[in-house]
Amino acid sequence: MEYTQAEILQTVAMTEMEHLDVRTVTLGLSLLDCSSDSISTIAQKAGEKIRRAASRLVQTVDEIGNEFGIRIANKRISITPVSLLTEGAKGDPVELARAIDDAAGAVGIDFIGGYSALVQKGTTPSEKLFLDSIPEALSSTERLCSSVNAATTRAGINMDVVAQIGRIIKDAAERTRDQGGLACAKFVCFANAVEDNPFMAGAFHGVSEAESVINVGVSGPGVVHYAVRHADRSLPLQELAETIKKLSFKLSRAGELVGREAARRLGFPFGIIDLSLAPTPVRGDSVANIIEAMGFERAGTHGTTAALALLTDAVKKGGAMASGSVGGMSGAFIPVSEDAGMIEAAQVGALSLEKLEAWTSVCSVGIDMVAVPGSTSAETIAAIIADEMAIGVMNNKTTAVRIIPVPGRDVGEVVEFGGLLGSAPIMAVSAFSSAEFIRRGGHIPAPIHSLRN
User: Within 13 Å and on the Cβ side, how many CA atoms surround 274?
Assistant: First the structure.
């Protein structure tokens, strides 16, 4: 498709008035050729390759943003799941984590994702050691992000890994106690993880991807909120959905324009555009506010799951009309600490963990940047994760959890993370135990509808 001058001017207007940004341009980079029987050697090769491949990423993306008049908030890298590189290698995986983080800092990017493991069906001894390394890796690095895929519709849920992740999260929180458990904000547990997600903390470069690729994440909750807030209050819902769909078309076109130009200048293939609405702590740049503008007193009340379903579907339809390269998760993110409307809804009691879990059935990441009391047990955290995994597995969709047990804090207090991570009210968890269920371990089998061959 050709891009008209009028279309570009409309997008610039949205940029100036309605918080539109391209949230991330992410370089996906394969590190499979860095394999070795020594983690020290892998670390050296991986660091050199990241520095070489991404040397012009930040400068080039900044130039494009300035030329087009579109804010590009983050420059990121996703790499091959690191547990694949460390399989059978001698040494400490944390050495590789630090080398990757150092290289990311050297090229000036914001985050690098891919300290990851795909263990939905089982783990090797090497993968078990890798999982154990995650708390130290995240607490001793600045830009590194980590993820674990613990479930798929085809494989079911690896409950041994889910239980271990509960312990990993508690350990990571304690290691960054003086920062409110910040390491946990860089870790996400997935069901049905996708290989081309450009958003952190869950981005990794899948093994079916090309050697290198440019992926773009577009975010426009401020634009959509502005349109919904100014729409006729009596507008039928199907017409409101049409309004959102048309806006998503324009947002997607702007993002693809940026992505294809970045790919051209850097000499990499263009991959996908992820349409996910991703909020920021800036007032008005909020998914919760979009929902409220549809006719609710507060996000989280009855009916808001239906409203979020309408929003997510309209965004996907608009993007699919605009581009043949839609990928990633392409829905809506609802990170509590990163969304001013979500924060307010949680503080007044309109939004609970149970409602976020219900929302997961119609969006991508439901329990996201949720802070809970530091006294929350590893088993309770694992049980929260298990519920989210079950929603993903049974509905054949991507779901995820990013949860932070804040050491020394309790319900009603607020923890400040700063920047795009915002601040989080400590939310209540159930007072009743799930420990016996989690201690059973083993595997929850794949559902019958996974047998589709």
Answer: 25
User: Is 29:207 a contact under the CB 8 Å cutoff?
Assistant: no
Give the separation between CA 367 and CA 365, rounded to whole angstroms.
6
For residue 30, what is the DSSP state?
-
Helix (H, G, I), strand (E, B) or coil at 99: helix
Q: What is the pLDDT of residues 212-228, one digit of tens each?
A: 999 998 877 878 888 88
Strand partners, 184: none
DSSP 154: T
Q: What does the alpha-carbon distance between residue 49 and residue 103 come to, in Å, rounded to a whole number? A: 9
Q: Which of 274, 302, 279 is nearest to 290 (CA)?
A: 279
What does the pLDDT look like over 403-429, one tens digit per residue? 999 999 999 899 888 777 788 899 999
**Residue ranges in the chain modelled with pLDDT below 70:** 1-20
CA distance 259 to 254: 9
Provide the pLDDT for residue 10: 55
The candidate with the shortest Cα–Cα distance to 45, out of 7, 4, 73, 86, is 86
**What pLDDT is stored for residue 271 in this prediction?**
92
Q: 444: part of which helix (H) or strand (E)?
A: strand 443-444
Tokens of 87: 């399989």
**DSSP 8-state class, residue 201:** S
CA–CA distance, 132 with 203 (Å, rounded to integer): 20
Which DSSP state fits 277? B
Q: Is 187 helix (H, G, I), strand (E, B) or coil?
A: strand
- Residue of 255, 282, 226 lying closest to 420 (CA atoms): 282
pTM of the model: 0.91
Task: Show the tokens assigned to 356.
Answer: 């976020």
Nearest CA-CA partner of 216 in 280, 290, 273 = 273
Neighbouring-strand partners of residue 401: 189, 367
Look-up of token digits 């479930």: 151
